[in-house]
Fold this protein.
Amino acid sequence: MSDLLRPHLHDAVAEIEHQVRTHVLGAGQPLDGDYEHMVHQVISETVAHFVDSLSRDEARGRELRTSELRALYTKLGAEAARRGRSADLLQSALRLSGQIVCRRFIKDAYRFSWPRETLATLTDSLFELLGRAADAGAQGYARQQGRMASDRAHHRTRLRDLLLRDPPPAPDALTAQAGAAGWTVPHTLAAIALPPTSRTHPPGRVLPPDILPNWDPPAPYLIVPDPDTLGRERLHTLLAPLGSIGIGPTVAPSGAANSLSWARHTLLLIERGILPSDGPVRASDHTALLAAARAEDLIGTTATPLLNPLLALPPARRAPLLATLLTYLESGDNAVTTGKRLRVHEQTVRYRLRRITELTGSLFDDPAQRLDLMLTLTWLVHAPPGRAAGKRTGTAES
């Protein structure tokens, strides 16, 4: 039977190669010389192997050639994965090749008056061969994808660590590592600090692929490119089940370590109950409080001489006076605005201000002390002595 088909080998190879290039491979990215040669080799070897397999002679040679053909399809599948081509292209090419060969079989069956048994044998042998080829190609594709994913993960880890290096990396070094990781260097980024419990249930499968996570340290975190672009708010929804998160300021890539530092500091204040824990908290929304927290020890020392009469009051009396003084200074010494912000009558504000003056002997109107005083009050209002946290209140002094 192989003798009948052998004279038509060249024509069959030419037709299959033309159709596969035109209807399968030509629809995707253009072929380069090496890949084009590989496609030609695979088609030629497949057709030759099929014809040889129909011969009753040289069984050992057929086994050897089957092994070589399997290796060839494994290599073709791996090369398709490496070039970013779809795995479906190989399957489509094999289906198209099978259709072409079947049409040729039917045509030759009529031309040479083959019996039905001959045509059935040819068809069965063809699809058995194509099935083995498809399996080998799929295995090669999957293995190469696995190797590429492992390499990419390694490069992404190195990229993440490079971004957090202090001092920051040179732009050329960052660009090179980003290229190896398949990551585009963004104009801006921000770090997100996550609670320790997120290590046990990381949402890695649903995170956008451009985010660089690290779930391993006791304090997990994410590096998020272009955090202020449209759609990034959906990320907060994905992270909501993890609990409280602190979002660092948006910075250039060279400032990634700084963004992570502030994100973690924000999360620390959430855990202490000083910042709200009912959703994502942005460091940029609490600049004064974060700055004051960094100087917590200094504030605890310097606040005593100035505000000691207020700090000596019981918490229920101290809290509204401190909140009123801070809000009054923030409002440009406007009692009406202060009352609206605290939701109390302006006369209540004026009464509290008089009490503050009576207790401290100061009007707190020295411009040179104003900024320091506001920073100190910011910390004392949110983290009053003797308890973890407090909120501004409009409750009247008792």
User: Anything to note?
Assistant: The chain is about 65% helix and 5% strand. Confidence is low (pLDDT under 50) at residues 387-398.
